[in-house]
């Protein structure tokens, strides 16, 4: 990571995040629910959280006495760990629940689990579910804040926020940049949240994918749509690669991994189309040799590990914003 | 018991009548019509002063799902009958995908008897095209017809095999029975749960392209023309389907098409944020599709409007959208929702009523659906402007999954008459 944010250049470590007005949202379900100023505020809060994780004693007490439940209906190592670390660094009691689901009883489990967990009086539930809209549905059944950690192909708002924070850290700004999102747009919640967030911050967004991986109406969500990597990457500031699910390359949408890599894999030659200072991002987990050349993934332009670091900061900021009045007595 | 309904605005699409007058009912049938000011009233007759309200043939709803037998907690013949009567529906066709499936003459016979014993309105059983609505083997069309089935349909199922559809059409033509077919290409529909387009993309839901309807429709229409079957496309949702039906109708009078009131009055935007009462099959389409279907209704390409009444309990509806069951109830709101189109000036009253009275009657060879001497006295008195708000808790269906919850509607059945007997009447307080 190149720079700390200007807010922390003074060297003052935030004990409490003073200076932010109360956050107006109770849940974080969708980037679409956020106003531009709310997005910027979350990014500013997150920026203040970065040094917390870099100091030796990585803890605040702002969520002390609060209970956070991570409820993951879909397996996830990195997102769940990131939320867990974020909550613990803020002093919350964090409980992880992985719910194995059979396809027939998914919904039943969702509502039943929501009622059960709600009775344990958590302050925030972080939810990942395979069905679009499931997190919103759950949020209607509980009395606490709910954070969407990914719902089907709908949204993954903290991913978009951490991506934006990473861009801001490296580029010093977000507005006016050109960002290309490449790959399986049709099935990606990361792409949707990023298109909404970047669009709200006046970024020129491009999507690049074979037509079989572009969803209907995408031209209304992205500024430009490309099916050719070289053309689409021309002069972009940021290249965001998406993971290609192996099951997509089964001859139904994509004939083979090697054909996909030949036309849509990111390698040094293709990256030459982008601006010389362009950064390369990936939400992980990566398929090296499928959507990205290992030399790029692990090379100097890659900011992929920074994204992971920013992920913790963003999730700390989101939890802190949604759970107000931390030390202010009974609510 | 004789009955005279006087001072009514008689609207009968079969005869294109829209005129004030009186109707005399004797022995459950319409004995006489009188358009004079002072009709002769037989002694002892009950007299109803319609006070200028519309008197129309009772509505015939061609697509209703009932939970009996098998899922009585969702709906029984009796509760569906209550909802129908309150909605001005005097006959409805009951879909065969019950538990067990209505694919056997004995079941048709049972349902007719059971409906006569428990339901206030005429319930007309449809029989399955294929055994167990499995799409593989045709049922005993002859025996099912003898038992009293009014048409063949696989309900929510769409037959994928071209050869089987051809065989079914050919064999149905043999018995001169109508085949009503839901149109959904299984593979193009895939995991889709709503109309394909920007809205589905934003919600992260899999879309269903209109071609999932137009491709099986084009196949059906060609095979209907080949076999000469009386074919009814169960429900059209896509504007592109209209031109296909129009072209086929030019070549055969035995082809007809229906539309759900949902696809006529709602569109994909109504799904909002994963509202599962708007998860329907066919899916709610774009506003352009809706407008094209309305034009199809006006120009006679669309013959019938039905409720697609499909009771589902909250357990299967309170789910993430993709996992929730589809369907919405509609018997009680069909008339009022259809009158929306009249009030908005999109379709005239005669056209809307025709699609819910005489056209279904003709397609199903029923003697109801008209106000004529000798016809059964299935009638509805309608206040076209009666204002009311849909409240799920006040609807008579056993299930609550209405797509019109909270909707402010104008128009209501004030009195519903089946075979000369009043089966529904709005209370004086409600009318006050």
UniProtKB/TrEMBL annotation, chain A:
Domain (Aspartate/ornithine carbamoyltransferase Asp/Orn-binding) ranges: 176-321
Pathway info: Pyrimidine metabolism; UMP biosynthesis via de novo pathway; (S)-dihydroorotate from bicarbonate: step 2/3
Catalytic activity: carbamoyl phosphate + L-aspartate = N-carbamoyl-L-aspartate + phosphate + H(+)
Domain of life from the UniProt record: Bacteria
Class of this enzyme: transferase
Residues annotated for L-aspartate binding in this entry: 106, 189, 243
Residues of the Aspartate/ornithine carbamoyltransferase carbamoyl-P binding domain: 26-169
NCBIfam families: asp_carb_tr, PRK00856.1
Family assignment from sequence similarity: Belongs to the aspartate/ornithine carbamoyltransferase superfamily. ATCase family.
Function: Reversibly catalyzes the transfer of the carbamoyl group from carbamoyl phosphate (CP) to the N(epsilon) atom of ornithine (ORN) to produce L-citrulline.
Name of this protein: Aspartate carbamoyltransferase
Natural source organism: Devosia nitrariae
From TrEMBL, chain B:
Domain Amidohydrolase: 344-424
Coiled coil: none
Domain of life: Bacteria
InterPro entries: Amidohydro_3, DHOase, DHOase/Allantoinase_Hydrolase, DHOase_cat, Metal-dep_hydrolase_composite, Metal_Hydrolase
Positions of the Dihydroorotase catalytic domain: 53-238
UniProtKB keywords: Pyrimidine biosynthesis, Zinc
Zinc as UniProt keyword: yes
Keyword Zinc: yes
Protein name as catalogued: Dihydroorotase
Underlying gene: pyrC_2
């Amino acid at each position: 990571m190149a720079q700390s944010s200007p807010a922390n250049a003074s060297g003052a470590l935030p004990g409490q995040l003073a200076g932010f007005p109360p956050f107006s949202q109770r849940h974080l379900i969708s980037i679409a629910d956020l106003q531009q100023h709310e997005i910027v505020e979350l990014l500013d809060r997150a920026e203040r959280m970065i040094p917390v994780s870099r100091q030796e004693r990585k803890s605040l007490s702002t969520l002390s006495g609060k209970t956070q439940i991570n409820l993951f209906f879909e397996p996830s190592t990195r997102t769940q760990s990131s939320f867990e670390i974020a909550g613990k660094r803020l002093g919350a009691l964090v409980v992880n629940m992985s719910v194995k689901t059979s396809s027939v009883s998914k919904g039943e489990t969702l509502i039943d689990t929501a009622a059960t967990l709600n009775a344990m009086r958590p302050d925030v539930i972080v939810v990942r579910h395979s069905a679009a809209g499931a997190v919103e549905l759950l949020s209607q059944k509980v009395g606490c804040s709910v954070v969407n950690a990914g719902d089907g192909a709908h949204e993954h708002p903290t991913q978009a926020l951490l991506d934006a924070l990473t861009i801001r850290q490296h580029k010093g700004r977000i507005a006016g940049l050109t960002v290309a999102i490449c790959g399986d747009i049709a099935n990606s919640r990361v792409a949707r949240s990023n298109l909404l967030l970047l669009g709200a911050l006046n970024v020129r967004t491009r999507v690049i994918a074979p037509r079989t991986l572009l969803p209907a109406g995408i031209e209304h969500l992205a500024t430009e749509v490309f099916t050719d990597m070289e053309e689409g990457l021309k002069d972009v500031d940021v290249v965001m690669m998406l993971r290609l699910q192996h099951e997509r390359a089964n001859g139904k949408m994509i004939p083979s991994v090697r054909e996909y890599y030949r036309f849509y894999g990111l390698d040094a030659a293709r990256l030459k189309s982008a601006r010389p200072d362009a950064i390369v991002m990936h939400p992980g987990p990566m398929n090296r040799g499928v959507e990205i050349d290992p030399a790029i993934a692990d090379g100097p332009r890659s900011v992929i590990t920074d994204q992971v670091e920013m992920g913790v900061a963003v999730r700390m900021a989101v939890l802190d914003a949604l759970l107000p009045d931390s030390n202010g007595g009974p609510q | 018991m004789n009955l005279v309904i006087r001072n009514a605005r008689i609207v009968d699409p079969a005869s294109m009548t829209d005129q004030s007058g009186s109707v005399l009912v004797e022995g459950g049938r319409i004995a006489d019509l009188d358009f004079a000011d002072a009709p002769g009233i037989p002694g002892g007759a009950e007299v109803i002063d319609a006070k200028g309200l519309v008197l129309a043939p009772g509505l015939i709803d061609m697509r209703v799902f009932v939970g009996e037998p098998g899922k009585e907690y969702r709906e029984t013949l009796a509760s569906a009958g209550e909802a129908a009567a309150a909605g001005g529906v005097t006959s409805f066709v009951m879909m065969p995908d019950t538990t067990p499936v209505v694919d056997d003459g004995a079941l048709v016979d049972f349902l007719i008897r059971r409906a006569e014993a428990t339901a206030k309105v005429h319930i007309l059983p449809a029989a399955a095209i294929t055994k167990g609505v499995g799409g593989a083997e045709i049922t005993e069309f002859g025996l099912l017809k003898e038992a009293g089935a009014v048409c063949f349909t696989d309900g929510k199922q769409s037959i994928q095999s071209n050869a089987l559809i051809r065989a079914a059409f050919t064999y149905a033509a043999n018995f001169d029975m109508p085949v009503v077919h839901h149109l959904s290409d299984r593979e193009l529909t895939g995991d889709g749960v709503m109309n394909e387009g920007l809205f589905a993309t934003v919600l992260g839901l899999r879309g269903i392209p209109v071609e999932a309807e137009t491709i099986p429709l084009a196949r059906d229409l060609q095979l209907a023309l080949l076999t000469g079957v009386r074919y009814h496309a169960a429900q059209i949702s896509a504007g592109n389907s209209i031109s296909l039906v129009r072209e086929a109708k030019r070549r055969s009078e035995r082809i007809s098409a229906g539309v759900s009131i949902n696809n006529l009055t709602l569109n994909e935007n109504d799904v909002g944020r994963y509202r599962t009462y708007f998860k329907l099959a066919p899916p709610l389409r774009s506003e352009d599709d809706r407008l094209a279907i309305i034009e199809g209704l006006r120009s006679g390409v669309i013959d019938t409007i039905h409720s697609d009444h499909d009771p589902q309990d909250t357990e299967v509806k309170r789910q993430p959208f993709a996992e929730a069951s589809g369907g919405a109830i509609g018997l009680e709101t069909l008339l009022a929702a259809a009158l929306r189109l009249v009030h908005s000036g999109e379709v005239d009253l005669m056209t809307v009523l025709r699609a819910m009275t005489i056209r279904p009657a003709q397609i199903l060879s029923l003697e109801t659906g008209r106000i004529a001497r000798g016809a059964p006295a299935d009638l509805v008195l309608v206040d076209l402007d009666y204002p009311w708000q849909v409240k799920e808790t006040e609807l008579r269906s056993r299930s609550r999954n209405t797509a019109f919850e909270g909707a402010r509607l104008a128009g209501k059945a004030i009195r519903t008459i089946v075979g000369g007997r009043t089966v529904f009447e709005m209370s004086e307080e409600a009318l006050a």
